[in-house]
Amino acid sequence: MIRLLSGAILAVVAVAAIVFLPTTALRVLACVVAAMAAHEYFEMTGVSIRAVVLVIVLCWIVSGGTWPESYVLFSIALLWVAANVLISDHGVQHVAAGLFASIYIGMPLGMLAAVHALLGWKATLLLVGTIVVSDSAQYYSGRLLGRTKLAPSISPKKTVEGAIGGLIFATAFMVFVGARVLPDRGLAPLVGLGLFVVIVGICGDLFESRLKRTAGVKDSSSLIPGHGGVLDRIDALLFAAVPFYLYVRNIT
Questions:
Q1: pTM for the full model?
Q2: Could you tell me which residues come within 8 angstroms of residue 173 by beta carbon, excluding any fewer than 6 positions away?
Q3: With bands split at pLDDT 50, 70 and 90, how would you rate the model's confidence at 1?
């Protein structure tokens, strides 16, 4: 009951934020969510909390809808690693793990806000809805038909049959709703987009499961009753936001 109630509240808040918040406020919210998810990542990996600054900076830059020059990003990353190695006792590998958080968490959430800036709330909800349908279809298809383990060493409950169910239903959602949200897009591009978004979303889910297994924890945190942490709720979305954003940029 707690899981259903907290999930319903979370869904209402998320939809309301996407639909009603102006772009600047949504960018700020994306940075806040990025900081919370990054904190959970740091707790699992043992990375210094100071790396949250880089996560927020990259999220804010990307959320503006204009992609910065590659040399700018490279310079920021190089300066960050060099400065942290010089002022801390941590090695390059430890500092690089903090840098990765900005790419893994800050950049995708910035891209999600950028989708809103480029095409509005309907396109943003199209992506979020596709991931929600995928997760739900994977769960119920897996419970009903699941026989073959998808990645038993990472996530024992996930099955190949569940993944196929997620691919079918979420791609159908992308095609049906996408035809109305993204006009003038043909059937084939929407099918391809749906399949790719769902596949990378599953990879994102498995990636976070690997992080938790390595850290020896069940959830990234206990912030959301019955659901775990922020990172647990957006793991698939973090991977899926990248191809969707690149697609949206290409058609605008």
A1: 0.91
A2: 129, 130, 133, 194
A3: low
